[in-house]
Amino acid sequence: MMDIVSLIALVLLPLLLPVLVVSAVLGSGSRILERLKSTMTLDEERGLAEQGLLWVSIISPFLYFIALGVIAWRGYSVSLTSDGLSVFFSISALPLGALSLSLPLSVLVSRLHATKQTAKQIKITNQKNNIDLFHSHRKELFSYFDQIGEVEYLGCLTGKFKVHPRVHKNFFIGKPENGVPQLNINAFEDIERELSSARWELDLIIRDAKPEFTYSFYIVTFCSTIYRLSEKLGLPEIYVELAERSILVPTKLQGKEEMELLTVGKTTDEAVAAYRYAKSYYHNLCDFSGKEPVHEENDNLKYIEMGGKFRKVKDEKVIERLHKNEIQQAIQAKA
Question: What does pTM read for this prediction?
């Protein structure tokens, strides 16, 4: 039984003792297990001399050398002669073999530590490159729109084509550390639905296709759609500048309390100009991102998007009539 205990001690103690001692000196953490784990793990943020595993790889072979030597040298005495030296080497083959492991083990630990440091440096470099790519993509978006310059729409709205920072955040998905962001397809499709709705609503208003609904189409539906578009695309020319020339109209929706809704300017030209600017801005955003915008199939509505044909659809300008009659009546009723 004692032989078994001695064998276990011979195998384990030269390894466990250095681990415990080194963890007490170089280990980090408040608990024993944390200090042991940090000792047996290479930390690329600390120098090689501070790596517990290095000292274990040096001390442990030395202790195995001593432990095996005690057994191998039992019954021998020290003799500083050539014969004594010859006997020493002949009986110390195993202890010296254990001691010789110290050098390759320490070199291995050193290489592994250097490899981890290199891997971390590569990771940091890649992360920095990805951050640079992300910010470069955003700067290119700003630069792209800067090349467009100001565009005047129907003499009543000047589109500056400036990019609000949230446009990049909303229409492109990704974190800076992941590099070039990806298209947020849902955001693009949402704008296309809003533009399609605004186009359809504006046509119904200009033609006065359903007179009994024209007022609500304008106040409740179209104006709300345009302001949503301007907020999502970041167009202060609409939600700030044009809004300042607009009118708050008291409106009571079915099942809701009375509220005030803002018109899009006061004229048909302003309504059409706001729609054209929003659509042009979106198409430029698509051009930059490489996304092909959805083209409307109804050619009968193209008059809204170009030229002044919309002014001749009806002799009476419907939006101007709404402002003169229904809207004024709603305001006076509120007063």
Answer: 0.74
